[in-house]
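debug: dumping io for the single-chain case to check the tokenizer round-trip. Nothing else runs in this session.
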Amino acid sequence: MRIRLVVLAVLSICLTPFLVGQIIGAQKERADAVRNVEQGLRTSINRTRDFLMDVQADVENMASLIAANDSFQRVPPAECSENLNKIRSMDKRIEHISIMTPKAVVYCSSTSSAEGIAAQGPSKHFKSIRHSNTFWGDIHYSSISNTVVISSVSVIKKNDKVEYLVVISLTVSALRNDIFDLFQVPLGKAILVNGKGETLDSAALAQPDLSFDQTTIDASSSIEAGIIAPRTKDETASYIGVVKLPMNDARMLFSTPLKGVYSREDQKLGFAIVISLFEVIILAATVMTAIEFFFFRTLRKITKLASEITSGGQGQRISVKSPFPDFKVLASALNLMVERLDDASKLDSLTGLANRRALDVHFEHCDRLLADEQTALAVAMIDIDGFKRFNDRFGHAAGDNALQQVGRTLRRVARRGTEIAARYGGEEFTLVLTITDAAKLYAYLDSVRQSVEDLAIQHPDSPFGHITISIGYAVASPGMTMRQTVEMADAALYASKAAGRNRVTAGQASPPIAADI
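debug: decoded output
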């Protein structure tokens, strides 16, 4: 008993510096993590500022183009509205585009129901007339769309006489969502305030209960683009990012909570302490067990643990020469684990086909065969027609199911030794086949196309009414590389798409086959 206590005490003393080092390291990591959050927020704020300036320039350029083309106001309002709606549809951030008379009455609009409406608060329109350039108004509630917008007003003049006004309004919610995508750090809440400090719009994310106090809002009024540091260091602390809109005096405030950073680093510290204590206990038990049982029981435990983790983890194959059978069992278990992980890394988890990594390795093998002039191979590039529209209509779950069905169909195609069916990326697939006869290859690939069409997966947005595929193929002759062949097949695939999709097209280096599917 005394020996056990002595061993435990010695090990504890030896590991104390390690424990202290873990605590110091955890504190340093916490400080580094906070600095990383600050840097990430600062970068995101700068990107947001640049984005808003680009949006302002895009809108003003669009207004200039409309102003330069007097055909809009020379046609009936209905036709003018239709033309404006086409322009509006090019940018999802634009809520509406209107052409108004000098008295701020809508002549035509991308929102046709707005024709004849008199704008509220016309002073901004007259200010635009006086300045004869683009003027951005305050963020306001649109009487046309009943949404919060920010509008620009530009004047159309002829012979120094004001004829019409071009009004382009941006939807604040769409603009806000685009800005969220620019952030590299998690956001808790975002608000939009005017020059008076009044909140015009807000979005609750990870901190729905957070309220920006008046002190913070007042401090933001002097910041063009920057950060307000947290006043506390507890779990309620947050960095506040501020960006002034270049169009007017409004500002956007973003909170980045530090609670997650503090919690994560505290967990690391707690984990380090637990690990250190655990190591003391394990090491003491190991030494005492080795003394008492000549370390065989520990070896069996390690062997059991290694056998249990054969379904995960990474490592290298090892070879052990030992008179103890337990070492050989351990080596076998670890090698089996590596083999399983290696097999899993070569398959696409969704379709069960070879993944891009496995395809690249197979291409290297095929290149060696082609260089030695041992064989000729064919490469087919396959793309699911209109798959984005299918995903948009039915959702990603239905899209994944469609990819799985197509994958099962293609898995039955490549069966010979050097053949492979792989998912190239997204909805694109690759086949490497040993069939190189022009007529047979075309017929075989056309049967693949028909097999996918026979799945009868409904696709209302496709001209065929169901999911189809387009195929482009090329033959890799000895001396060529697989990459060259893929490029030829890819060009043929684009030719299939351009010709109407749901067809098979040969690459330029392959004998042409007439087809009209």
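debug: round-trip ok. Residues 41 and 185 are 6 Å apart (CA to CA).
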